[in-house]
Specification:
Number of helices: 2
Strand content: 5-15%
Structural class: alpha+beta
Distance between the termini: 60 Å
Order of helices and strands: HEEH
Bound molecules: zinc ion
Strand order of the largest sheet: 1-2
Number of strands: 2
Largest sheet: 2 strands, antiparallel
Length: 65
């Protein structure tokens, strides 16, 4: 098996800092602000996450009829 090599374009995107290995700069799903997030993170702050959770429960649970 050939040794896995990281493609050049991927290297150039990556930040040189080791500790940022798993962090990606992404837009927050709520406020749209760019923030460094982990692989499964979608919100820049706890507040945004709480907002998202609230919106989510509204969308799935409480519905006006
Ligand atoms: Zn946010």
């Amino acid at each position: 098996m050939a040794k896995f090599e990281i493609p050049e374009y991927y290297k150039s995107i990556k930040k040189p800092k080791q500790e940022e290995e798993n962090m990606t700069e992404r837009n927050c799903f709520i406020c749209g602000k760019k923030a460094k997030m982990g692989k499964f993170q979608r919100y820049c702050t706890i507040q945004c996450r709480n907002t998202a959770t609230r919106l989510d429960s509204v969308a799935h649970g409480l519905r006006f009829r």
